[in-house]
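Review form for a predicted model. The reviewer records the input and the model, then writes brief findings.
Reviewer: anonymous (R2)
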Amino acid sequence: MERSEEMISEEYVDHIQNISLNPFFQSRVIHAFITGYGKQAPYYLLYIVLPIIYYRPSRKLLITAQSRSSLRSLFVDDVDQVAALGGLQERVFYFYTSTNQAFIIAANEGRVRLHTDGFIQLSQSIDYKNFLNKNVKDFIRASHYLGLLCSKMEVSNIYRLLGVTLV
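Model under review:
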């Protein structure tokens, strides 16, 4: 590849990164998680969503998840799959502000509501099957299934299983 072609491809990657790290897109990812969760979700559970979904190895596992899967069977039981959680604590800190911004956008658009008790109520559902772009659909589907898997466990057990703490 020539130098000019290399610069063009680097610019292209930067544009894709800008789009995917856009808080409006991230609000859709969080919205899909809450839809998959299926009940009122505790606000602090949102802090694991973007770090897991934006890490390709964990997203790939979630895309293949089924409704009978569990977080343990998906990420912990198989030694090869444990690597999909590598660096999760650091990514939680990295995405902390982005998570807050994405939630504010979702709330302002009327898709979710935060109650005074710290629980989030879904106002409108989102369906990953309605997305035509495969990459976008993969993000939304993975987030939906993460919500579904998290709804089967106590929140404290989720953080313990994933090895994450919030400070």
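Findings: Residues 1-10 have pLDDT under 50 and may be disordered.
Further findings: The first helix runs from residue 3 to 20.
Recommendation: see findings above.
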